[in-house]
Write a structure and sequence with these properties.
single chain; alpha/beta; Rossmann fold; globular; binds P1-(adenosine-5'-P5-(uridine-5')pentaphosphate; binds magnesium ion; cytoplasm; EC 2.7.4.14; Adenylat/UMP-CMP_kin; Adenylat_kinase_CS; ATP-binding
């Protein structure tokens, strides 16, 4: 892909910060294709005949980052599939969350336009995840997994955000207010950055 064919925005933030929620609103209003790396991994985990099913399940339960080869291939396939249908604008949600992924994706697929970073305290994220866990059915929405996800976010994913920040490519949004208030901030941040 080249920069003229597709545009990608990385959507990052801690577990339960609200990445998926805000992406859904952007899809509705701006026609982005929303690709959640976590959703793609969960779909691959459930796909009959997948050779990675049990590996993915274990990584997700332990809050660890699945080897980049798997995730990048899933993202690449999803982008190709949508590109063939004419879609050019992508929100890549929950990725890259480890340095190697950031480097490889931008080398082999496309350089992201910028990064939307949803900043949220662990207290708020924990509350949201436990609430969602009552009905989500996600194997990582329990206190043990959540603690591991928080640790991975701090140790492994924050360095990625710092890397993009050093290149002045991060738009930081506080997401502790209501969904609609957060979305207003997102929209005004986008207004400045989209052509
Ligand atoms: N909610 C949302 N916004 C709210 C607001 N403003 N006020 C009040 N409530 C709000 O939201 C979470 C909950 O909060 C929902 O109930 C929502 O209604 C409410 P959501 O929008 O789902 O937050 P999100 O940030 O998307 O949380 P998610 O749990 O999806 O984040 P994670 O980053 O933890 O999960 P993801 O699916 O991206 O990854 C899961 C796992 O997959 C990772 O831990 C990892 O093991 C693996 N993974 C990889 O290995 N590699 C990857 O590249 C990506 C994932
Ligand atoms: Mg999500």
């Amino acid at each position: 892909f080249t920069q003229d064919q597709i545009s990608v925005i990385f959507v990052l933030g801690g577990p339960g910060a609200g990445k998926g929620t805000q992406c859904a609103k952007l899809v509705k209003d701006y026609g982005f294709v929303h690709l959640s790396a976590g959703d793609l991994l969960r779909a691959e985990q459930d796909r009959e005949g997948s050779e990675f099913g049990s590996l993915i399940k274990n990584y997700i339960k332990e809050g660890l980052i699945v080897p980049q080869e798997i995730t990048i291939q899933l993202l690449k396939n999803a982008i190709l599939e949508n590109y063939e249908k004419g879609s050019t604008k992508y929100l890549v949600d929950g990725f890259p969350r480890k340095m190697d992924q950031a480097i490889t994706f931008e080398q082999v697929i496309v350089k992201a336009k910028f990064v939307l970073f949803f900043d949220c305290s662990e207290t708020v994220m924990l509350e949201r995840l436990l609430e969602r866990g009552k009905s989500s059915g996600r194997i990582d929405d329990n206190i043990e997994s959540i603690k591991k996800r928080f640790k991975t976010f701090i140790d492994t994913s924050m360095p990625v955000i710092e890397y993009f920040n050093e290149q002045s490519r991060v738009v930081k949004i506080n997401c502790e207010t209501s969904v609609d208030e957060v979305y207003e901030q997102v929209q005004s941040a986008l207004k400045d950055r989209l052509d």
